[in-house]
Structure formats: structure tokens, C-alpha cells
Amino acid sequence: MTNDRKAILRKSIKASVKALSDAEKAARASQVWASVEKDPRFVSAKYVLLFWSLPDEVDTHAFVEKWHTEKHILLPVVIGDTLEIRSYKGMESMRKGAFDILEPTGEPFLDYPLIDLAIVPGVGFDASGNRLGRGKGYYDRLLPQLQAYKIGVCFPEQYVSAVPTEPWDSKMDKVIFGTIMDNEQVIKLGRLEQILPEELGNRSLDSVFVLTDENTHRLCLGKLSGLGIPASNVICIKAGDDNKDVEALASVWSHLSQHGATRKSLMINLGGGMVTDLGGFAASTFKRGMDYINVPTTLLGTIDAAVGGKTGINFGGLKNEVGVINPSRSVLIDVDFLRTLDKENFLSGFAEMIKHGLISSREVWNHILQFDLDQIDYNALPSLVEESIQVKRDIVRVDPTEKGIRKALNFGHTVGHAFESYAIQQNETKLHGYAVAWGMLAELYLSYKLVGFPKEDFLQAVSLIKEHYGSLYITCKEYDLLYELMTHDKKNEGDGRILFTLLGGIGDIRINTNVEKKDIFEALDFYRDTLGI
Question: Does residue 300 carry a pLDDT above 60?
């Protein structure tokens, strides 16, 4: 990116922040500092260097005042043409709007190795932690000299899809965007018999409940046998997405109530996406919220449903019509579970990995293409799973409530959910991942036609899906019904338009793209022609 383009990007970011009201800025700043305070690095730090400031100089004095008696708070001070680090000596030594000490006394703080943590603002950050620097600012000069753990702090409006690095751009170890996902979901990969006791041992709980379906109760519950959970605290619901309904939800609530669950209890959701969706919703609403842990046992649950905080049930023949966004406290992944999946369920989960490859980067997409679905290498699978999860986490951390970039994760889902809802109405059960794969076929066509998705990548992705995912039989007579189902998509804004997430290329995300009815029907024609329906 040229410096001119960087200037344009900075201007755009500043404009979006400036558009926030004072109340919105204050609320975001409060969330930022709450997330900082919960971060383990801050909790353990003794020497904290706090750079100035959040957007538009949102007041951080209260944060400094709160912590300077417990930690050694250090502040950057401009003296002449140099930037020095000085110890905070109380509010009277500061002036409103800057951390400049009015009359600095004593020597500058030069023992940089003692600094445990640096809290750093910036014009913009990407999800990988790259900071968009100005190129000649004081902070840009000082940051490379620090060995401390660096936390970037900003608002979601300062998210940049990618920061092409220049010599003055510093990489943070972590970025806090001031959202509910900043401190969400510790994700651990390993053997469940080891990582689950470790996770429970870090919590103060009055009881633990386990939610399973009929399949995971039979096949997976044994891995929890060493935890001493009473049989009466194990809840079993019917398997299958068609049972992700109000009746099943009410049965979980009833069991929790009858067996003494409280807000200090914990629910372990042991199962695929159906269990983690319903169990997360049940836990999030029981007594107005109890903690829960997701232990996904399917590839779809591992890659998608268990991560990101979305919970819910189907209602009125529509997918995930009722639910809340509330992240689990952790996601524990035992890849051994994936070895037990049949090919159809494995492919269902892999469809979401295809989507993550398309919306992220050429590198991730190439990894997807190189994975042999006919001879599955379970030793190579964990790294691919971890990479795919990270794609979703990076997006969700910035936009947990799906106001903007999180809509990228809905690529393939506008048409896919319509296919899935149609199948439910026909009493024909189809796995979610298959519906998403079919939806991606249609939406890849729209991307190619409307926003210039490259032909070579288009043909490559279509071939991959066509080879492995079969088809849902529809005729042109169903187009109007499918279109009506798409009008219920959660990305729509109530003005009659159907909004899609499309791709201008690998990783080139175009959210909120209005697509006309004739183009949608043309995409359905392409779907049928491609699959020989």
C-alpha cells in the first residue's frame, strides 16, 4: 500500500470514529478498559507503560488513577524534541488532553527491560495485531525499543482488514477492540481427559451439568467419566437439527431447574453444532445467564458452531430464528472425536472450512485445496482446523454482534439457509454444511457476475464443491418459495432488499451487496445446471 493510500485509510478510520456520539465513545472506552483489566498479562504486570490515547482523546485518567497505586504506571512524555518515559505521580502532574507531565522532576525511566506490558493506541489495527503507524510519530520511534508484551487498544471502527507493514509499523501481541469477545473463549486443543479437568480446576463452581444428544451420550460421554459428575446432572436430548426447537430447549431448562442449577453452575455442551447452539442458548437464558463450555464432537461444531458466541434454536420452520450472542467461556477441542465421523458429517464441517478459505487469504485457500478429502490425513488435520478457527475468531473479535465485517461469515448462507429451510419444510433432513456448500455455488456465481470474482478461482471452487457435495433437488417452480425464504435472512435490513455477502476475490469481502430477484433466479439456474438437476 502506498503512503497515499495509507493516508486515505487513516482519514476513513478517523471519519468513522468521529461519527460516534460521545456516549458511544464512552461506552466503547469503558469496554476497552474492562477488557484490559481482565487480560492475564495486565493482571500479572508490575510495570505498565500506557501510551496516549484512545480515539478523539477519550478520557483514560480514571483508569490510571484506579491502578497507579497497585502497579508502576509509566507514561510517555514529550520534552523538547524527544520522547521520554516517566512515572505517573498523580493527577495533579497531568494536564487535560495529554499525558505530558507539566514540570517533570527526576530522571527519565530508562530501565526498559523492567516494563512488563505496553498498552498502545493506533490509527488502525488488523486482526493479526499489525498497527498502522504514522511513520514519524514519537510512538513509532519508541515501540521497536520495547521488549514488553504489547496490547493494542482501539475501537471496532479502527479495524483494518490488513495492514501492509512499513518499517515504522509495529506488531502487537494482542489487540483489544472493545467488544464482548475481547476476553472470550479460551480455545484449547488436546486430549479431553487432560484439558477439561484443567479448565474446571480454574473455576469456582457449585455444580456442573452436561448436555448431550443421543449419539454423544452413547459415544462421547465416557471421556468425562473421571470428573465425578452425577448421572442426574447429565441431560440428553434427541439428535438431529430438526430437534433444535422450543420443546428441546424447555426440557433443558426444566432439568436445570429441577436439579438445583444456579447462576454459579456450569454447563458443558458435548456434541455437534445442534448441541452447542441449543445448549449455549439454554445456559445464556437460564436464570439470566450461567457459564458454559463447548466441547464440539463434529467438524462442523469445531469449526463454526462452537466458536463465536452465537446460540439459538430453529423456530417456525426457519433456521436459527431465535437466539442470543453470548460467548462460551472456553472451547475444548479433542481432534480424536473427528476420527469417529462418517464421511458425510466430515464433509459437512469441511464446507465451512472452504468458506473460511475463500473469505480469508490465498494462503489459507491453498491449504484447503491441498487437503485430500478422499484420503483424510488426521495428523495434518489439527493445524488446518486451528487455522480455520482463527479466521473466524479474528472476524468475530472485531464485530461480535454482526453489524459489519462478521457478515463475511455468512458467505454461502443466504441461499444455503433457504435451501436448508426448504428441506425442513419438505421433511427432508440435510446437513448444514451441505446446504452451505450448495449456497456457495449460487453465491460464487453472483460474485463472479456482479463483483468480478476471478474466473480461475471461481471454476476451482465450483469444481471442489461439485465433486464432493451432491445436490438438493429443486425445480424452477421452487424459486419463488426459496426467494421468500431468503427475505428472512438476518443480514437484511427490513426495506425489502435481500443483502448478500459476495466476494470480489479470495479474501475480498463485499458485505451488504443488494442482489436483484432476476440475478438470484439466474444463480439458482446456475446451481441446477452445474449439478445436473
Answer: yes
Nearest to 42 by CA among 71, 76, 74: 71
Please tell me the predicted confidence (pLDDT) of residue 236: 97
Q: Is the pLDDT of residue 455 over 90?
A: yes
Phi and psi at residue 96, to the nearest 5°: -55, 130
C-alpha cell at 275: 448441541
Cell 453470548 belongs to which residue? 326
Identify the bridge partners of residue 260 per DSSP, sorted by sequence position.
none
160, with CB counted inside 10 A (0-12, 13-18, 19+), is buried
Q: How far apart are CA 359 and CA 507, in angstroms?
A: 4
Q: How confident is the model at residue 97 (pLDDT cuts 50, 70, 90)?
A: very low
Question: pLDDT at residue 80 above 50?
Answer: yes
The residues pairing with 118 across neighbouring beta strands, listed in sequence order, are 49, 150
Would you say residue 99 has pLDDT above 50? no
Separation of alpha carbons 151 and 423, rounded Å: 47
What's the mean pLDDT in 239-244?
91
Q: Which residues pair with 267 in a beta bridge?
A: 209, 292
Contacts of 10 (CB under 8 A, 6+ apart): 123, 124, 132, 134
Q: pTM for this one?
A: 0.75
Q: Which long-range contacts (CB under 8 A, 24 or more apart) does 71-75 make?
A: 71/45, 71/46, 71/47, 72/46, 72/47, 72/48, 73/48, 74/47, 74/48, 74/49, 74/50, 74/109, 74/115, 75/49, 75/50, 75/99, 75/101
Block residue for cell numbers 478498559: 33
